[in-house]
UniProtKB/TrEMBL annotation:
Zn(2+) binds at residue 85. This is KpsF/GutQ family sugar-phosphate isomerase. SMART domains: CBS (SM00116). Residues 44-187 form the SIS domain. Belongs to the SIS family. GutQ/KpsF subfamily. GO terms for biological process: carbohydrate derivative metabolic process; carbohydrate metabolic process. It comes from the Bacteria. Residues 212-271, 276-331 form the CBS domain. InterPro entries: CBS_dom, CBS_dom_sf, GutQ/KpsF_isomerases, KdsD/KpsF-type, SIS_dom, SIS_dom_sf, SIS_Kpsf.
Length: 331
């Protein structure tokens, strides 16, 4: 890397100072927003929880971009939501807002002209209007049944005009509404996985039963099997261990490669039940892949048997190996 001369170093320092000023100013806005939340916030969450249709969000310009993100966050966390462009609404898209919906409108000034027909439509069909604006005396806030007023804060812009602090506060308020609704709805990690089946999130939230090896792939042996035969089973299945089961098919122990090394001198005469570890570690079939991988790493082992319920039913239904997680792109 080329060395910076003195003038370049000063330039970089100034740039860093500008960047830090912006972030600090927006952080001040977020702190003010957190302390400003009141009963209207709770009303908005209740409106989200009780909506029969969708939460329809609308805005224009930067507020519209923020609205799209809030709609996506709500939809992905259990609250059906969609975005309607304010200008397009007056040209036919108003039909996307029904009497079963709740409407949330975003406008920093609260005077965005394109929102007025949308407000009138909402009043006409009798649905709640949640308004988010910095204009405490604005048309939007006065027309909203649930007004959410952003605290006074300077835009983090040299000329104090570009939407920066205001849009950051809008976005954070949308996240707060979505997460509070998600928590009260009891939306679980399993629910999240159903809505995120693709990508890395979907993989992490897969259940073990979705990718475990099962049936004839399981290296299972009885406790009275001679170790000479047990080693052949272990070798043929290639997992580096074998599960020892009792007459009822319950897992009572495992024989690992480590156990073979520890009992090397007696393998010709020993039975599986004499060599096995009688306190086998196992996981349940409904455990999430992310949690299963964490357990493997914590235990410093490479493979585990899978059961339906390790306290009530320890019948092995599958086996997972760390290579399975690597193959899925999780490790």
């Amino acid at each position: 890397m080329a060395m910076l001369d003195k003038s370049q170093k000063i330039g970089a320092d100034e740039i860093l100072a500008h960047g830090r000023d912006v972030i600090a100013m927006e952080a001040e806005g977020l702190a003010a927003l957190a302390t400003s939340l009141d009963g209207a916030f709770a009303e908005a969450v209740h409106a989200f929880l009780n909506v029969e249709g969708r939460v329809v969000i609308s805005g224009l310009g930067k507020s519209g971009h923020v609205g799209k993100k809030i709609a996506a966050t709500l939809a992905s966390t259990g609250t059906p939501a969609s975005f309607v462009h304010s200008a397009e609404a007056a040209h036919g898209d108003m039909g996307m807002i029904s009497s079963r919906d709740a409407l949330m409108l975003l406008s920093n000034s609260g005077e965005t002209a394109e929102l007025m027909p949308v407000i009138e439509h909402a009043h006409r069909i009798g649905i709640p209007v949640i308004g988010i604006s910095s204009g405490s005396d604005s048309t939007l806030i006065k027309a909203a049944s649930i007004p959410l007023v952003l605290p006074a804060a300077q835009e983090a812009c040299p000329i104090r005009m570009a939407p920066t602090t205001s849009t950051t506060m809008m976005l954070a308020l949308g996240d707060a509404l979505a997460m509070a609704t998600m928590r009260l709805r009891g939306f679980s990690r399993e629910d999240f996985q159903k809505l995120h089946p693709g990508g890395s999130l979907g993989l992490k939230l897969m259940k073990v039963r979705q990718f475990m090896h099962s049936r004839d792939r399981l290296p299972l042996i009885p406790a009275d099997m001679p170790m000479a035969e047990a080693v052949m089973v272990m070798t043929s299945k290639s997992f580096g261990l074998a599960g020892v089961i009792d007459a009822d098919g319950q897992l009572i122990g495992v024989v690992s490669d480590g156990d073979l090394r520890r009992h090397l001198h007696e393998l010709n005469s020993a039975l599986a039940g004499e060599v096995m570890n009688s306190h086998p570690r196992m996981i349940q079939a409904d455990m999430l892949a992310e949690d299963a991988l964490r357990f493997l790493n914590e235990q410093k082992i490479t493979a585990l048997f899978v059961v339906e319920d390790e306290t009530a039913d320890r019948t092995p239904v599958g086996i997972v190996h760390v290579h399975d997680f690597i193959r899925l792109g999780l490790a």
